[in-house]
Amino acid sequence: MATSLTTGRPWRVILTFAVPLLIGNVVQQLYQVVDTVVVGRELGVNSLAAVGATGSLLFLLLGFAWGMTSGFAIPTAQAFGAKDAAGVRRSVATGTLLSAAASIVITIGGPLLAEPVLVLMQTPPELLAEATLFTQVSFLGGGATMFFNYLSAIIRAIGDSKTPLVFLTIACGLNVVLVIVLVGPVGWGVAGAALATVVAQAVSVLLCLEFVRRRMPMLHIRREDWRVTRDDIADHLRLGLPMGFQASIIAIGTLVVQVALNVLGAEAIAAYTAASRVDSLATALLASLGLAVSMYVAQNFGGRRPDRIRSGVVQATWMAIVASLVLGIVLIAFGTHLVRLFVGDGADEVVELAHLMLIINGSTYALLGVLFVLRGALQGLGQAMIPTITGVVELFARVAAAVVLGAVLGFAGVAMSNPLAWVGAVVILIPAYVRAHRALAKMPVDPLEPTLTTPIAIVGPDNSSLNVDAVVTQPVPVMVQRRWKKLLRR
Question: Where, per UniProt, does this protein localize (predicted)?
């Protein structure tokens, strides 16, 4: 159900919106967790390391897709906050066309680049065949991943963070069944694990499309909405490309980390893979909070409520810090037990190295929490430059730590690359948001007033057929958004 984030206590609105995102993020991480557990226990440490060796490469392209589709949803959220129904539909049409184009590039280019890039990354020869196969199957299903991310993003943009969770949970259950069957009885190995995830994502896409068709008429694109303008495309790319490149820049850093791990051998790769799975589940809360903040800020920016933006971001920052401390304590205390879920008996060195990485990351989660919230706030305001710069800073910090500290300290040095990257990003984000915070204080609280009317379809509730039973006129506000953007840049 579409929900406005422009009313109610900010911390409560953000938290309520973030909880389904958190559950959805955890469920999404379960895709990878199930793959890791089944592959590690059914196929062995080398197969687990082969799957782990593909993570940074997959993130390079699929992470770009995720970041870009999230950026495409920000104009949708701003139009929804401004009560601009035509703007919402036009934004959805623009994002759909751009997502389709990106899907074609990933589906064709990804499989072709898989093996050469894995060789360039110095993937151990004994892992190369399985790593290449897993990567190619994953990229062939890149379109499903792209469109599930995009559909989820636009549904969240109009205030509904629960529906994508429902569909994701169903898909995760399907993924669990498929990966067990395809890797085990069917015997398709790592290719079966990748295929299970692709099929589950495709089912999620179908469920989202059917839900939008039946329940969300405000997202139904009309023929005239497909006539997107150059300005529409530029506006979406202005946000989508930097957010995608930001994810890719971070992924390039992880590629360097992967190279450093490959030099250390299969056990180091397996340990990093297992620790990353646990770490991803833990940081899902912080990532969800950051995404909730970006949608909250975007809607309130569209609705001209700078006062709510200022108070909401401060409250979200404190929530992130408290959550970070709790998560860090849990990982440090119980990390060993969690890692053992991914490996069988006789892998004590893998468990020890993985727990070391969890201790290093868990003790610095507060930095990551602040990073997610402030970056999400700036993106919600439509600022693309600073978040992109922080991605570049993370890249250099992560590469320097992996190369220099990895050579001196081994696995521990590589593990330190994440916290050092977070430090570099936060150093940039804090003063950037402080400037935006002060600029928001100078803006008038100018809630939109109805000034025009537009026909609104009243949909018959009998059979969810979306037939128009009546047409009435509904006040619709006119937003002068450019004036606000100029004020924010001052």
Answer: Cell membrane
Banded model confidence at residue 365, pLDDT cuts 50, 70, 90: very high
Provide the token pair at 12.
Answer: 């409560």
Supply 86's token pair.
């035509």
pLDDT for 374 beyond 90: yes
C-alpha separations of 251 from 67, 146, 391, 401 in Å: 12, 17, 10, 15
Instruction: Enumerate the H helices of 121-141 as residue ranges.
Output: 125-140
CA-CA distance, 199 to 376, in Å (whole number)?
30
Q: Which residues of 177-209 are buried (b: 16+ CB within 10 A; e: fewer)?
A: ebbbebbeeeebbbbbbbbbbbbbbbbbbebbe
Contact between 293 and 14 under an 8 Å Cβ cutoff? The reply is yes
- HSE-CB for 268 with a 13 A CA cutoff: 19
Rg (CA), the chain: 23
Q: What are the Cα distances from residue 182, in Å, to 158, 173, 192, 347?
A: 37, 14, 5, 25
**Contacts within 8 Å (CB) and 24+ apart, 426-431:** 426/367, 426/370, 426/371, 426/374, 427/393, 428/386, 428/389, 428/390, 428/393, 429/370, 429/371, 429/374, 429/375, 429/378, 429/386, 429/390, 430/370, 430/374
Higher pLDDT, 33 or 226: 226
Across the strands, what pairs with 454?
Answer: 474
Residues 387 and 242 sit within 8 Å (Cβ to Cβ):
yes
CA distance 308 to 447: 11
Q: Helices then strands (H, E): number in the chain?
A: 18, 2
Size of the chain in residues: 490
Place of tokens 């890797």: 183
Tokens at 473, concatenated: 């006129």
Spatial separation of the C-alpha atoms in residues 108 and 400, rounded to whole Å: 32
* Predicted confidence (pLDDT) per residue in 396-430, tens digit: 888 888 888 888 888 888 889 889 989 999 999 99
Q: At what angle do helices 85-120 and 55-81 cross, to 10 degrees?
A: 170
Q: How far is the CA of 472 from the CAs of 79, 432, 457, 469, in angstroms?
A: 21, 45, 7, 10
Reported as a single tens digit per residue, the pLDDT across 175-222 is: 888 888 888 788 888 888 888 888 988 998 998 898 888 888 888 888
CB atoms under 10 Å from CB of 32, counted, come to 21
- What is the distance between the alpha carbons of residues 51 and 33, in angstroms, rounded to a whole number? 12
